[in-house]
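Why should sequence recovery work at all? Because a backbone constrains its sequence more than one might expect. Tight turns favour small or flexible residues, buried strands favour hydrophobic ones, and helices have their own preferences. The token representation captures these environments compactly. In the example below, the structure is given first.
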């Protein structure tokens, strides 16, 4: 299992956190998704045998966010 933290733009609606987490978590091999509005980050724990960092970045983008940096 691997975790990446994505610094994103547009993370400003607390009411959508659950929807964001669910849209990313819906992919098989995604173990956990944590959204931190204050830090403007989305952390994703995933099966690195199934996905690479670029795949996860695409999932975050598909959820509606521009990824500025990966930590």
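From this structural description, the recovered sequence reads:
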């Amino acid at each position: 299992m691997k975790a990446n933290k994505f610094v994103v733009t547009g993370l400003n609606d607390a009411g959508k956190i659950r929807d964001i987490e669910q849209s990313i978590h819906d992919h098989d091999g995604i173990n956990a998704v944590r959204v931190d509005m204050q830090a403007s980050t989305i952390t994703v724990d995933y099966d690195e045998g199934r996905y690479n960092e670029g795949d996860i970045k695409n999932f975050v983008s598909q959820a509606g966010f521009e990824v500025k940096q990966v930590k």
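A few observations help interpret the result. The radius of gyration is 11 Å.
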